[in-house]
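Predict both folds.
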Amino acid sequence: MKKFSEFFENWLHQNYYKKATKIGKEGDFFTAVSVGNLFGTLIAQHFLDLIDKKILTPPLQVVEIGANEGYLSKDFLSALLEFRPELFKEIEFYIVEPHLRLQTLQKQTLQNIDFHHKNSLKECNFENAFIFCNELFDSFSCELINEDKMAFIKDYKIYFSNIDSYTKSKCQELKLSKGELSFALEDFFEDLNKACKKFILASFDYGTLNPNSLSLRIYQNHKIFNPFTSNLQDFFGKSDLTYDVNFTHLQQLCNFYNFKILSFEKQKEALLHFGFEKLLKYTRNKSIKSYENFLQQAKYLFFNFNDKFHFFEFQKT
């Protein structure tokens, strides 16, 4: 038997993501990026607002982690070129991506754009970074916790057996009796702290505070399957495996590293605060076609993503 976290890591990162599986209509699931360029444009507006308020001060390293095919980066940079082209003199752009196939796709998507690839945060040394990511934390390997038991895998089946003392102490610390626990999230925070002298990290993910149930699920062709009743061998490495992020764990890690939490709110509320109405006014005056396109995208962004989707932003100064 092996720990569930090892199985999860092998499923997603050694197989599924490594194959550069498509996201969107042709893939297993949608993200906000799949809707169109409105999402990346609003993140760019937020980035510029942080600069205007002197919360961020150029020169800057701008970094996306988990960029998949690179469309969010493209939308973000295209918006910067539209709104503030002179800023490009003061930023360096990076993508942190371990998978070679995805690196190749990102280079194709971002043709004629000067950027750097890094395989992991361990390779990075940023002085002053703005980092953004979408649905990153839900891809981190996790343990499955059920009271005094944790999950193991044998012959592609999930079994619950006695929890080890270290995992049990972490569950007690988080007051977690049932749900997912990600030690990979803790590793990420450690790497992030070492990689950056200063940063702001703007992240979007779905999850909950103080979880009290298991949320693990499989996505295949936009359908959800229960991993506890499905034949896992049929799905292994060929479908998405995900769960609700424990935002209480994120908050605790921010406190541990003395990172300042700047925002924690529902995704749709954050996008409104990023200046959606201002963007519509600007676009309407410039191009009716683009204005109507943004309105159409907004219907999906604001109404087709449930309230578990959140924006979580924190800072190291």
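Second protein follows, with its predicted structure tokens after the sequence.
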Amino acid sequence: MLSTGALRAHLLAARLAGPVATSREVSLRSYRLFAARDPRVTLGLDPGRGWEERDLLRLMADRCGVSDDPAHVSGPDVIDPERTLAGLDAFAERLSHAAVRRAPVLFGTGHPHRLLGFYAALADAMSAAGCSVLTPAQGRCIDITTRFGVRTCSLDYVRGVAMVREPGVWSHGGDTGAHTHSPLPVRVVLEAAAEARGRLPELVVGDHGWVCGAGQLGIEAIGLADTDDPALFVGEAEGRVAVVVPLDDAVPSAYYQPLTRYVLNRAFLSR
């Protein structure tokens, strides 16, 4: 089993925590946009209270370990590795509880190039534990607003993990999905499951709009989030999101493998 000390060292060496690639400027811009209720950063969450920039900065300092000094406006942002470790423990505990009761689970990512392997390994383990890993709405088209305009993307599943693909980009079974923050994919998936009178997920695992969109609808949701993703942490603070793990969500995919082993061991899902 990977020790906590070894994982802490890996988090810092891989820049998953400590000084991360996400800049302070990018994080502060996200906080300003969230305070203005910009849908690009609320990710499907409808906050229950007004969140000003200073409130978000205090929240992110508490949940991630970023500086709470509003005068600190440049340079790399920082994530406290102890908060990442605590988040991973809580994340694993939720997976374990779902596995014990053999709950239906949905996995989805807006970072397929980076995080597909992490989620796919968890999906494999949950399936082996007797959980139904749900895959509704395979191939369904979804109109998503991007910085390039509205794109009609298609929903796909790879090893049980949902993602969207842009027009003209197709590689069934590969990780060529699109980077998206949109909550529309999870809404389409849940709607399709309900229409088919199939099983709805009791747990949604993922990032970005997958977590916020599910949590907003009252479904237990857990996920990963960077310092420029305040919506997930607001959702956690307001009780809509069960667990958020603070870490850099865009490092090379191989760097997440030790986290996979740690979570599976903590959740008693290792084979």
